[in-house]
Q: What sequence folds into this?
């Protein structure tokens, strides 16, 4: 029931919500303290022109001083929370950032006032930099520097992902506004600025220069040929059959040749268009798809060319049976790509917002051609036929082509992974060792003392290395961020900015299906490890945890699901509070900030640890929303990997009484949603001194003990 609720909540939450700027003209005027006259938002790009009065000539027309824009309207880059960071940037007409303000963010580690101030301080480093600067974000403990061409900015402690998001938001948005509005016509500046911005984007935005033939070979441009024979066949049964061919023409010769491309893809658009053409598309591509269709017609080789007619916009597009309304873009220039045949006419078509085109799905593109007929040409009777125009650039082919031409070493997240290759290597070794130990579970747990040593050592590794050193604590915030990103139309690529968490999540997904939630909760969660290590120490000094009555334990285990549903529900019902609800997790205080945090957070983390002293892994079993999410997905886990005997439960209750997590039912059945994979029961199963059926067998001299089929 709770699992079903969890899945329904996920479906509901991932329905699209959009992101948009928060400020209006008056807000911007106030924020810039009345230094500028703010004009109306531009129709071609969401930017406000800023004007300055000339004090020497107060009656003269105010001069354009620059543009103010919210980055969320132009380049909504997602931070750690999965939601975009929003900044107001004021850029002057020479491309210098005169002011940068943090307007809004949902970054979980910076929600309090000191945290927000740290982000503001980081953003303010961009003031007086310009489009000409190559910007590099350093680690938080490295000193920044700047000169006329480059700037190294000091990063944010525990905020690498957030700082990178701010960086990309500013650079990409400024590049877009500069190319749309500033009279910086030099292609070099536009190219440099765009390169600066695109370098930092994910693979879907990267661009490798290609020639016309390469664009065709890679299906970035699709070609359609209509032969004279096809033309004749199409009109054969019409009022206007094509009988007037010039004799020297062969039927197989081309009558019409089309080339089609989806321009919003940088690989196609940046190669086909010059900087000015790309600027048109860049301004619209977030909301509207643009197509290029070129037509090379040989109709003039036929007799009586004037019998053929086309409308100024002769194409129609339909998708899923619905017509897509197209707008012809007024762009007369030829294409800039080397090798492009000069004789063709290019049409640039924009899918209107009211009927959006989904580029990842197939669509039909048709060319409409009219032919006059009748003896009296003045009557203008025409017969219209349509020809299907091919295009390939959608779905898996688009994804593959994108991957092929991605310059991986230029990608921000790849650089981050390379920076942390030693940590990644150590983590991978740790995961291989854990997987080996769990695959050979009987050997790992053959000796209870060895198992205790191995487990203690691994928990120390998890807490010390994965948690405190590499900052790889998975959290329910990863889930809420992913939902927030997907529901606002974004992807999950922002998660790649945190390599340790990405690897751990991949590992968790894999092992969830095989072993269930226990692999992460029992071995890889730093806060879980901290609780368990503290319990071990307490046990050493004679402080033992209590076992709750089974009925009470069952009731309390439901609390974590309620908390999880509360967090997920708040994303939809009260998004402003969802980040605060995730604070029920003490991970940030105990792992990210090493207990150096505001006192209410420290008190809560201490309370969770004290709970673990009273009841074994009390926080994990009763309160943890992440544990609840993993346990909910346990429904997919089908393999009963813990060996059982027929005597388990009836009459033997040894494992049940030894299981600290109370994950074994009186019948002997394992509750895998609550099992932490500690292997204690697997160890008992093999122990001739502890396992009741084995003790009996030893006493009776029997050679076989019945096992329960898995
Ligand atoms: S229940 Fe929560 S705190 Fe406990 S181990 Fe699992 S994820 Fe970590
Ligand atoms: S003792 Fe309990 S928690 Fe440990 S493996 Fe067995 S059932 Fe799971």
A:
């Amino acid at each position: 029931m709770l699992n079903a609720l969890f899945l329904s909540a996920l479906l509901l939450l991932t329905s699209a919500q959009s992101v948009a700027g928060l400020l209006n003209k008056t807000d911007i005027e106030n924020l810039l303290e009345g230094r500028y006259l703010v004009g109306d938002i531009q129709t071609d790009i969401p930017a406000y022109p800023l004007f300055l009065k000339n004090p020497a000539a107060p009656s003269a027309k105010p001069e354009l001083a620059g543009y103010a824009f919210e980055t969320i309207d132009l380049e909504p880059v997602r931070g750690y929370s999965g939601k975009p960071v929003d900044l107001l940037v004021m850029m002057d007409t020479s491309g210098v950032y005169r002011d940068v303000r943090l307007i809004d963010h949902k970054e979980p580690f910076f929600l309090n006032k000191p945290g927000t101030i740290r982000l503001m301080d980081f953003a303010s480093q961009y003031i007086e930099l310009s489009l000409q600067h190559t910007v590099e974000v350093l680690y938080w403990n490295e000193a920044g520097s700047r000169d006329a061409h480059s700037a190294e900015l000091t990063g944010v402690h525990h905020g690498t992902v957030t700082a990178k998001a701010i960086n990309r938001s500013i650079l990409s948005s400024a590049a877009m506004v500069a190319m749309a509005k500033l009279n910086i016509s030099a292609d070099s500046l536009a190219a440099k600025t765009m390169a600066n911005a695109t370098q930092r984007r994910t693979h879907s935005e990267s661009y490798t220069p290609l020639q016309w033939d390469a664009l065709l070979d890679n299906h970035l441009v699709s070609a359609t040929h209509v032969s004279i024979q096809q033309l004749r066949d199409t009109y054969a049964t019409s009022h206007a059959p094509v009988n007037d061919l010039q004799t020297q023409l062969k039927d197989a010769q081309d009558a019409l040749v089309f080339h089609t491309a989806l321009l919003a893809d940088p690989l196609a658009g940046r190669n086909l268009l010059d900087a000015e053409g790309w600027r048109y598309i860049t301004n619209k591509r977030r909301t509207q798809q643009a197509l290029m269709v070129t037509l090379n017609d040989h109709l003039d080789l036929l007799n009586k060319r004037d019998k053929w007619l086309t409308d100024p916009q002769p194409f129609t597009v339909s998708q899923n049976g619905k017509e897509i309304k197209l707008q012809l873009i007024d762009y007369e220039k030829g294409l800039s790509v080397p090798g492009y045949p000069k004789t063709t006419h290019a049409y640039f078509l924009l899918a209107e917002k009211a009927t959006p085109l989904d580029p990842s799905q197939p669509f039909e593109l048709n060319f409409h051609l009219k032919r006059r007929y009748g003896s009296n040409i003045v009557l203008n009777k025409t017969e219209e036929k349509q020809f299907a125009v091919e295009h390939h650039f959608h779905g898996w082919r688009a994804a593959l082509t994108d991957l092929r031409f991605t310059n991986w070493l230029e990608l921000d997240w790849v650089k981050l992974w390379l920076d942390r290759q030693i940590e990644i290597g150590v983590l991978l070794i740790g995961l291989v060792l854990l997987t080996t130990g769990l695959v050979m579970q009987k050997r790992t747990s053959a000796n209870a003392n060895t198992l205790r040593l191995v487990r203690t050592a691994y928990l120390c590794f998890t807490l010390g290395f994965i948690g405190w050193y590499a900052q790889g604590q998975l959290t329910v915030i990863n889930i809420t961020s992913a939902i927030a990103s997907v529901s606002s139309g974004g992807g999950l690529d922002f998660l790649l900015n945190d390599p340790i968490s990405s690897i751990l999540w991949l590992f968790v997904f894999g092992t969830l299906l095989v072993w269930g939630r226990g692999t992460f909760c029992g071995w890889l969660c730093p806060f879980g490890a901290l609780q368990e290590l503290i319990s071990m120490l307490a046990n050493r000094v004679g402080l033992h945890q209590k076992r709750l009555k089974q009925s009470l334990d069952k009731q309390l285990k439901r609390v974590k699901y309620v908390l999880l549903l509360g967090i997920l529900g708040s994303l939809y019902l009260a998004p402003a509070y969802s980040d605060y609800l995730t604070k029920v997790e003490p991970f940030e205080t105990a792992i990210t900030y090493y207990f150096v945090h505001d006192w209410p957070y420290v008190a809560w983390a201490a309370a969770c640890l004290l709970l673990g002293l009273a009841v074994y892994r009390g926080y994990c079993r009763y309160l943890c929303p992440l544990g609840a999410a993993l346990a909910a997905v346990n429904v997919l886990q089908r393999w009963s990997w813990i060996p059982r005997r027929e005597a388990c439960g009836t009459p033997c209750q040894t494992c049940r009484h030894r299981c600290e997590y109370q994950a074994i039912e009186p019948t002997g059945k394992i509750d895998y949603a609550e099992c932490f994979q500690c292997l204690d029961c697997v160890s008992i199963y093999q122990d001739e001194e502890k396992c009741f059926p084995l003790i009996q067998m030893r006493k009776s001299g029997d050679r076989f003990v019945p096992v329960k089929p898995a």
